[in-house]
Design brief:
Number of domains: 3
Order of helices and strands: EEEHEHEHHEHHHHHHEEHHH
Strand order of the largest sheet: 3-2-1-4-5-6
Protein name: IS110 family transposase
Mean pLDDT: 91
Number of strands: 8
InterPro entries: Transp_IS110-like_N, Transpos_IS110, Transposase_20
GO molecular function, one term: transposase activity
Oligomer: single chain
Largest sheet: 6 strands, mixed
Structural class: alpha/beta
Number of helices: 13
Helix content: 40-55%
Shape: globular
Radius of gyration: 28 Å
Distance between the termini: 110 Å
Length: 368
C-alpha cells in the first residue's frame, strides 16, 4: 500500500503527517530538519523508495527537497499560496494542520502550482545574481541620495554620470567651496565604492560559474542587445527549458503577457500580468531598449509600435519577443538568425517632401 507524506518545514524541526491510499493516518510527529532526521523518518515508518513527499515553498524548501531526493524520496514543492487557498480551515493555521493539508492534497492530487527545484549549479547562479542585484541597487541609492542633496542646495553641479570613481572625484573637487556638503558626498562615495567593489567581485564569480554553461551563454549573446548579465539571468530563471511546453508559456512565466478578462460578450485586455520572475522581466526590458537604435534589427518593429502605442508599450513588446526568441534558441540549440525576423538588411535613406512649413521668424526693427 502506498504512502503519502506531508512535511511542514522549519529551520530546526519539521512536522510530518503520513497517510495511506485509503486516507488513513499512519503516523504524525516531528523530526529535526537535517539529513539524519529525514533518515530517521524513513526508517521509523519503513517508507519505500520513490515515496512522494509534499512541502510548501519557502526558504528551506529547496534545501530539504534536495536532501529528500538523495534519500530516495520523490519530493513535490507546492506553492504556499495555493496550499493556503485550498486548506480546509485557512484561518486556523498550525504546523500539524499544515502537514495534514499537504498530505491530503498530495494523496488526492489537487495541487497544480508546483515549484521547480533547480540544480545546485543553477541555484548558485541565482544566488550570485541576487547578491549582485542588491549591490547594484545600493549604488543607485547612493547616487540618488547625492543628487537629492545637490538639488536641495541649488548648486549647478552635474551628477548625470556618477558611474565611475573618476566621476566621483570630479564631483568632490567641484564641491571644495562647500566643505559640509563635500563631507556628506564623500560618505556616500565611500559606500558607493564598497558596493562597486562587491559588484566587480560578483561579476568575476559569475564568469567562473558560467564556464559550465559556456555554450548556452554564448548562444544567447548572439541576440542583439543581450549581454552576459541578461543571458545569465535568462538561463538561471528558466533552468530546464524542457519544463515549458511552448514559448507562450515562457512569456507568461516572465509576466510579459497581457491580463485578460473574458466573460460572456465582454472581452478586455489590460496591463501585463507581472507574474513570475521580476528580475528576468527587468533584464529583458533592459535589452529591449537596444531596439531604439537604428543599428538594431528589432528597430523597425520597435519604431512601428512606438508610433502607434507609445515608447513604454513598445519596450515591453520587444521584451516579450526577445523572451520567446531566446527560449526557442535554447530549446533548439540554434544561434540567432536575423533572416527569421521578416526584415531586410541594407542602408536605406528616407527622404520626406513637404509642401508647407512654418515661416521663419524675422527680427523686425524696433519702432522709432
Amino acid at each position: 500500500m502506498g504512502r503519502y507524506v506531508g512535511l511542514d518545514v522549519h529551520s530546526k524541526h519539521s512536522v510530518y503527517a503520513i497517510q495511506d491510499d485509503s486516507g488513513r493516518l499512519v503516523g504524525e510527529g516531528s523530526v529535526p530538519t537535517t539529513t539524519e532526521g529525514l533518515q530517521l523518518l524513513r526508517a521509523r515508518y519503513e517508507l519505500p523508495d520513490a515515496t512522494r513527499v509534499a512541502l510548501e515553498s519557502g526558504t528551506m524548501a529547496f534545501f530539504v527537497a534536495r536532501r529528500l531526493t538523495r534519500l530516495g524520496f520523490a519530493p513535490l514543492v507546492v506553492d504556499a499560496h495555493e496550499v493556503r487557498q485550498k486548506a480546509l480551515r485557512p484561518n486556523q493555521k498550525s504546523d500539524r494542520r499544515d502537514a495534514l493539508e499537504l498530505c491530503e492534497g498530495l494523496r488526492r492530487d489537487v495541487y497544480r502550482t508546483t515549484v521547480h527545484v533547480p540544480p545546485e549549479a543553477i541555484e548558485r547562479l541565482r544566488e550570485t545574481l541576487g547578491r549582485r542585484r542588491h549591490f547594484v541597487r545600493l549604488k543607485t541609492m547612493e547616487v540618488n541620495a547625492v543628487k537629492r542633496l545637490l538639488r536641495a542646495t541649488g548648486l549647478p553641479v552635474s551628477t548625470r554620470c556618477l558611474s565611475t570613481p573618476t566621476a566621483w572625484e570630479r564631483l568632490l573637487k567641484a564641491l571644495e567651496v562647500e566643505p559640509g556638503l563635500q563631507a556628506f558626498c564623500a560618505s556616500h562615495r565611500a559606500v558607493w565604492l564598497c558596493a562597486h567593489e562587491q559588484v566587480a567581485t560578483l561579476d568575476a564569480s559569475l564568469r567562473a560559474q558560467g564556464h559550465a554553461f559556456e555554450a548556452e551563454l554564448a548562444r544567447l549573446q548572439t541576440v542583439p542587445g543581450v549581454g552576459p548579465i541578461v543571458a545569465t539571468t535568462m538561463l538561471a530563471a528558466l533552468s530546464d527549458v524542457s519544463r515549458f511546453p511552448s514559448a507562450k508559456h515562457v512569456a507568461s512565466y516572465a509576466g510579459l503577457v497581457a491580463s485578460t478578462y473574458d466573460s460572456g460578450e465582454s472581452v478586455r485586455h489590460g496591463h501585463i500580468t507581472r507574474r513570475g520572475s521580476s528580475e528576468l522581466r527587468a533584464m529583458l526590458c533592459e535589452a529591449a531598449h537596444h531596439a531604439g537604435r537604428p543599428s538594431s534589427p528589432f528597430h523597425p518593429y520597435f519604431t512601428s509600435l512606438c508610433a502607434r502605442r507609445g515608447h513604454k508599450m513598445a519596450v515591453v513588446a520587444v521584451a516579450h519577443r526577445l523572451c520567446r526568441i531566446m527560449f526557442t534558441m535554447l530549446r533548439k540549440g540554434e544561434d540567432f538568425d536575423i533572416n527569421k525576423l521578416g526584415i531586410e538588411r541594407g542602408r536605406f535613406e528616407h527622404k520626406i517632401v513637404r509642401h508647407y512649413r512654418r515661416k521663419v521668424a524675422v527680427a523686425t526693427k524696433a519702432s522709432r
